[in-house]
Amino acid sequence: MNKIKVLSVFGTRPEAIKMCPLVKLLEKDDRFESIVCVTAQHREMLDAVLEIFDVNPQYDLNIMAHGQTIIDVANKVLTGVDKVIKECRPDIVLVHGDTSTTLNGALAAFYNQVPIGHVEAGLRTGDIYSPFPEEANRKLTGAITTLHFAPTESNKRNLEKENITKNVYITGNTVIDALLSVVDKNYKFQDDILNNIDFTNNKVVLLTAHRRENWGEPMKDIFAAVRRLAEENEEVQIIFPMHRNPLIRELAKSCFEGIEEKIHLIEPLEYVDFANLMSKCYLIMTDSGGIQEEAPALGKPVMVLRTETERPEAVEAGTVKLAGINKEAIFNIANELINDKKAYEKMAHAANPYGEGEASAKILERIFEWIKIK
């Protein structure tokens, strides 16, 4: 049997984190020929992850441009990946998650009648505009996918509700594969601000906030709740790696003015720094999706600063609380977790619903078996 030619397409930092463990395993497996195409929808952040995992793409579309729209990205990805597919003629194209790279990479494969493998399939919020455009991207990708690699049983049920029942496999999430490969209890950060924080004798809260739907008043309320948490709890220290969006950075600096000794505004962290920061902190407050998967593997409670989540299994498992965007509710939930040891321990010790770091191996086996019988 000839080697199975697998083209992996991704372009953002979160995609790279979750796809690189899969790519590295493909490279080591004699059954496969691994080809990587990055779109560079995120340029600098993508490159940093590629360097960490020592992944060298054969194709780089380099599409990132200042001020471009979603439609600009879509056009560039669709035409770029189409050319790559016509040149390398893969047996299957792998895409990940819910970005503009995901949907348009999958469309390029579909138009060329190449099978599609969707890594992290089946996530849903039920609201087509939240998150935007990610919810639509993943639903549309699912409609044309050949092999669906669903992290959890809940994700599989979401697909079943859309009459997608063929070739759906529960694999766990590849983000756990990535996370467990980089966390080190003796890790030293690149930023001395982090090295000088006493994680042992303080309750350090990691905050991340960047979602488009939280811009404006919701973000102000989130920051107000976080400030109050720091002011009313002596042992609390807040670390906020600020998103590069200037609107968020300016708002953060304004809202947290005068409390810099307790709320540390730092630059965005590279993946290994961020993973190890998660492992050392006490509590995580975030509007991110991926962190909801990663933190449970480290035993860290997560407060989701959104009104819905596409990862309800984490809420059901008890590792995540959906806090919403109301400042009183956010403060009350965070304050309880800071001061009520029983409530904290219940979340910290809940079972991780996203697997134990074997997702990449399971995906490769499913691809091999499917190609073999095709």
TrEMBL record:
Family annotation (InterPro entries): UDP_GlcNAc_Epimerase_2_dom, WecB-like
Record's keyword terms, sorted: Isomerase
Protein origin, superkingdom: Bacteria
Protein EC: 5.1.3.14
Gene Ontology MF terms: UDP-N-acetylglucosamine 2-epimerase activity
Domain UDP-N-acetylglucosamine 2-epimerase, first and last residues per copy: 26-366
Gene3D superfamilies per record: Glycogen Phosphorylase B (3.40.50.2000)
Similarity remark: Belongs to the UDP-N-acetylglucosamine 2-epimerase family.
Matches recorded under NCBIfam families: wecB
Name of the featured protein: UDP-N-acetylglucosamine 2-epimerase (non-hydrolyzing)
Organism name: Clostridium hominis
